[in-house]
Specification:
Elements (H helix, E strand, L loop, with lengths): L4 H12 L5 E4 L6 H10 L4 E6 L2 H13 L5 E5 L11 H5 L1 E8 L13 H14 L5 E6 L6 H13 L6 E7 L9 E7 L3
Parallel strand pairs: 1-2, 1-4, 2-3, 4-5
Antiparallel strand pairs: 5-7, 6-7
Helix pairs in contact: 5-6
Length: 190
């Protein structure tokens, strides 16, 4: 069966990330991915969630409290600064990251992710990501500014050296209204 976008993004993370590792939710949003990542890494793993919006931080913290999750730290900052919030030990156990690009559902649609900060975040994470680790980007682009971000992210990921990275684009081509798609970057074993 063909997996939907969100199910496939989670499947990719589950295949790459191990218990006890560190993971990044680069765009907390409503907290669903943060909770999912917490379950994937288990009680001895670490989840770092980032967002620039107070509403996203609050929603994610409430969701974590409701699930009694204690292995996640939520930080109000751009994902471009994510690696600066992790210790050396956490950076050396960095198993994966997930991004949901676009805007926070139910919020100000003028506040969107931007390719400049997203690419900085990807570069920082890739420099510390374990071999066989993964970055999953769910690209929502059907909003003002979304097409430019989509194009810039595609151009950036297209030029990643195939000796070191596998880059996958996964999406449905028969859906209307600019359906989201996935870009997954796997760091190859050397």
């Amino acid at each position: 069966m063909i997996k939907g976008i969100l199910n496939f993004s989670h499947h990719l993370i589950e295949e790459a990330v191990n218990k006890g590792e560190t993971v990044i939710d680069a765009t907390c949003g409503n907290g669903h991915d943060t909770v999912f990542l917490s379950e994937v890494v288990g009680e001895h793993g670490h989840v770092f969630g980032f967002d620039i919006q107070d509403a996203a931080i609050k929603q994610t913290q409430e969701k974590l409290a409701g699930h009694k999750i204690t292995n996640a730290k939520i930080i109000k900052d751009s994902h471009s600064n994510a690696i600066h919030h992790l210790t050396v030990d956490q950076l050396t156990s960095l198993g994966g990251a997930i991004f949901n690009l676009g805007y926070l559902p139910g919020s100000d649609k003028g506040i969107i992710t931007k390719s400049e900060t997203t690419i900085l975040a990807i570069e920082g994470i890739l420099s510390h990501l374990k071999e066989d680790g993964i970055i999953v980007l769910v690209v929502y682009h059907g909003h003002p500014g979304g097409d430019a971000e989509k194009q810039n992210i595609l151009e950036y990921t297209h030029q990643l050296d195939q000796k070191f990275f596998r880059v996958l684009k996964y999406g449905f081509i028969n859906q209307k209204n600019d359906p989201p798609f996935i870009i997954a970057i796997e760091k190859k074993t050397r």
